[in-house]
Specification:
Elements: H1 4-11, H2 13-31, H3 35-62, H4 72-101, H5 107-136, H6 149-153
Helix pairs in contact: 1-3, 2-3, 2-5, 3-4, 4-5
């Protein structure tokens, strides 16, 4: 049966990939003066921000009930990092969308957008690192199920 933990694990990889590839497109756009890369970076940022919202919501459901015990501290750190990532991604997306809408093409604006995107990617990396520690160091969401040995003996 699908749980919130499984859903979070399935969804989280999409915004990570979208934001990382979007940032790469943004960097390529600095050196290759083609609109394709800048547009790709913009749309990947928007999709990544939407994915971050979904990942944040499913992560909230997955972490419900962990209010004490050894997972409380690491879970709080991960949640704080996820909150920062969520708001940075939304802010960067809104910033880029407003600059595109108002056709404001100053050099400093381009660099502010790149710095915001860099902050998003750094925050994604930190959040992912803390989430990985939750799973691999603390076993959060891991269920160990052994096969029924009796059914193996009967050839089933």
């Amino acid at each position: 049966m699908m749980s919130a933990t499984h859903l979070h694990a399935m969804i989280i990889h999409f915004p990570i990939a979208l934001l990382m590839v979007g940032f790469l497109a943004e960097i390529v756009a600095l050196f290759i003066k083609k609109d394709l890369f800048k547009q790709a970076a913009f749309y990947l940022l928007l999709l990544g921000a939407l994915g971050a919202i979904a990942a944040y919501l499913t992560g909230g459901f997955a972490g419900e009930g962990i209010e004490e015990g050894p997972l409380k501290g690491p879970m709080e750190l991960h949640k704080q990092a996820a909150t920062a990532t969520l708001w940075l991604a939304i802010l960067a997306g809104l910033f880029q969308a407003s600059m595109l809408y108002f056709k404001y093409n100053r050099v400093w604006v381009k660099w502010v957008g790149i710095l915001l995107f860099t902050a998003v990617v750094g925050s994604v990396a930190r959040t992912g690192y803390l989430g990985g520690k939750l799973v691999y160091n603390h076993g959060a969401g891991v269920q160990i199920e052994l096969p029924e040995f009796g059914s193996l003996e009967n050839g089933k």
